Amino acid sequence: EVSTLPVLNVGYLENNDGDSTVVCGSGTTLTTITQTGGSLTTYSAVTTLTVHGGTYYAYSGTHTTINIEGGKVVWLGAGTITTLNINTDGEFDADQSDGAFTITNTIVMRAGSILKNRKRRINSGATPVIQLSGCGLKDVTIDLGDNITATIAYN
Q1: Where is pLDDT greater, at 4 or 126?
Q2: SS3 sequence of the chain
């Protein structure tokens, strides 16, 4: 099926994770998605994704901007993310699949956010660049696996 959705809102009534399940196939053109709950799966490119709750599963397609304000994004594909912002109570999980993908810009994290990349799938040049905005290392969870080297820069 082929469809164009300039705006897609996914939410819930009573059960944040179980009230709604939405799947958008590879023939879907998605511009702006706002998710406040439920389960959303896409197999296509997205211009702007903002997740406030629920779980978002991305299997393919370039995503220009992902803002995780709460809830969880599970990256399962090999597409490119241009900008990734992980805010308080937001989680980005790259460990549920294999194969590298690219995040073009610096990953911005705020207090209470989680980044999982134990399988080292994120390919942003030589290494992922992470910026902590308004917080320190003690305020975020960054799981990059074992045997890593981190370079700290102060700004």
Answers
A1: 4
A2: CCEEEEEEEECCCCCCCCCCEEEECCCEEEEEEEECCCEEEECCCEEEEEECCCEEEECCCCEEEEEECCEEEEECCCCEEEEEEECCCEEEECCCCCCCEEECCCEEECCCCEEECCCCCECCCCCCCEEECCCCHHHCEEECCCCCCCCCCCC
